[in-house]
Design goal:
With 136 residues, this protein is an alpha+beta fold. It is 30% helix and 15% strand.
Length: 136
Amino acid sequence: MARIVFYEKPGCINNTRQKQLLQTSGHEVVACNLLTEPWTSARLQSFFKDLPLEQWFNPAAPRIKQGKLVPASLTEEEALAQMLQDPLLIRRPLMISEGRHLVGFDLTEVKAWVGLDQQDTNIDVETCRKSHTTPS
């Protein structure tokens, strides 16, 4: 099984569920605080290199939800600078295992990458439930 360095927002319900999926699948999870990690642009870029810029961001981040920051309007340099200033903007989790970097927790991708016992790849363990409101 794999050893996975897992950058999370402590207390995030989804990150907790994601770590549990990895651990129950036999993986060793080394949890790190995404918000206090001493990031550099180069380190963050190593996670994002194959993704469109908008997928670098946490859509539930307060500044994005409030419309104060529009990822599509940023250059890569501006995006990284914003994330260094406000780590809540970073899509999570960030994971590293066996030299590969991964952003987010797409069940199909994680299952193909390190393996998961989770059979149902249609469950959503990435969208923050607190970020959506239901009509009354």
